[in-house]
Amino acid sequence: MASTTNPLVTGSQSGDDLNGKISPVSVSNSDFERTVCGIPVRNQATFERRVMRRIDLRVLPLLGILYSLALIDRSNLGVARIAGMGEDLELSIGSRYSVVSCVYFIPYILLELPSNMLLRTFGTRNLLSFCVIAWGAVQLAMAFVPNWQYLALCRVLLGAFEAGFFPALVFIITTWYRRHEVQKRLAGFYLISLLAGGFSAILAYSFSHLAGKAGLPGWSWIFVIEGAVTILIGCVAWAFLPGFPDNNTFLNSEETRFILERIEEDRGDSLPDTVTLWKAFEYLSDWKIWIYGLMFLCATIPAYAIGFFITVILSGMGWNLEFALLLSAPPYVFAALSVFVFAWLSDHFRSRAIFLTAQTILTLVGFAITGFVERPGWRYFGLFLGNAGSAGCVPGILAYSSNNIVSHSKRAVTTAIIISFGGLGGIIATTIFRQQDFPRYIPGISVTISCQALLLVLLGVLTLNFRYHNKTKRNTLQPAMGGRIDFLYTL
User: Fold this and answer.
1) Mutual orientation of helices 376-403 and 353-372 as an angle, nearest 10°?
2) Mind telling me which PANTHER family this protein's record contains (predicted)?
3) Hey, what domains does the chain have and what are their CATH numbers?
4) Binning pLDDT at 50, 70 and 90, where does residue 477 land?
C-alpha cells in the first residue's frame, strides 16, 4: 500500500509502538509542543474528554439501538414459530424451517462488500436509514405471508437490506477512535444489542398474546409491532446518524481538526482514500484478511447457535415454554458484562490476542458443559460461559483486525469480508443444530467446540506472524505495513 501524505500532520515521525516499546510520535512543528489545534496543552485533556464524550454519545447509543433492531428482526423467527407460525405455515415438514432460516444469509453475505464500497458515494445517513426502513417494511410484510415460500422470500429480502448495515457500523466506529480506544466502543455498541437480544424473545412472546386482534394470529403481531417500530426509528435516525470524522456535522471545525489530528498521530489515515476495484482486488490478495474472516466465522457459530436455539435448548432441559423464555435472558446480561470487562482490559493493556484466547476457551468450556454434562443446572451454566465468550470474541476480532489496517479503503473491504464470514457462520449454525438431534444437539455442539479449537490455531498463526514482522521492523527501522514508519502490528 502506497504511503500518503496528510496535511494535518507534518514533520518527522520517530515511532509509536502500540505496546509502549517505542518512543511517542514527535512533530517538527515547534508550536505543536505548546498547542494542539490552537488549544494550550494544559487544557488539552479537558478538551479531549469533552469532545470524546460528545462523539461517544452521538455515535454509540444510536448505532447500538439500530443494530439491536437488526438482531431482533433477524432472530425472532424462532419465537414466532413456537407462537403458532410453525403450525400455520407447516414449517415442521422436512427441512422447511432450516431453509427459511438459511436463505437470509445468502444475500447477507454477497452484498456486504458492495454496500461498504458504496457507503461514501450514497452517504452514511442515506444508505443506513434506507436499509433500516426497508428491512422494517419486510419485517412488517412477514406478518401477512400465506405460506412458507413467501416467508422464505421475505427472509431473502431481509438479508439483502441488512447486509450492509453491520459492516458499515463497524467501519464508521473504527474511523473515529485511536486503535486502543476502539474495542471498548465496539463492545459498548454491541452490548446494547446483546441486552436487547436477551429480552427480545420474552417481548416477542408477549406480543403473540394479541392473537385474534384485527383478525391476526399471535405470531403475526410479533412482526407487525417489531416491523413498525423499526420503520419509525429508521425515519427518526436519518436526522441523527453520524458520518465519518472528516465530513461530520455535529462537531465544530476546531473539534473536527482535533479528532483528525489525533487519528493521524495514531495511525496516519485520518482522511479517506478512494475505494476502487483495483484496490479491492489488491486487498483481497492479503491472506490475513481471510484468516480474520475464518476467526470471525468460528466466533459467530456459537453466537448464532445460542441466538436461534437457546429457547429450544432450554426446553430440551425440561423447562416449559414460559420458563425457557424467562431463562433465556440472564445469559445475555452476563455476556454484556463480560464483553465490556474484556474490552476494557484489552484496550487498557493494548493487547488483543491474549484476551481473545481467554474468551475462546470460555466458549469452548461452556459448550462442552452444555453438551456433555447431564444435570440441567450445569448445562444452563454452560450457556452463560458459551454466550459470554462468543459474544466477546465478536468485537474482539473486529478490533484486532481494525487495529492492524491502514487506510479507509482497506478498512471498508476488510470489514465487509470479515462480517461476510459471520454470515457463513450463521448458515453453519442453522444447519448443524438439527431437529433430529433434539434435545442434546450433540453433533452441533461438537462442531462448535471444534471451531473454537480452530480459532485458537488461527489466532496463534496471526500472532506469530505479527510478532515476527514487529521484530524485523524494530531491527531494520523499515515500515511494516507500507503506511506510517512507526506503525507496528497490535498483538
Assistant:
1) 160
2) MAJOR FACILITATOR SUPERFAMILY (MFS) PROFILE DOMAIN-CONTAINING PROTEIN, PERMEASE-RELATED
3) 48-476 (1.20.1250.20)
4) low
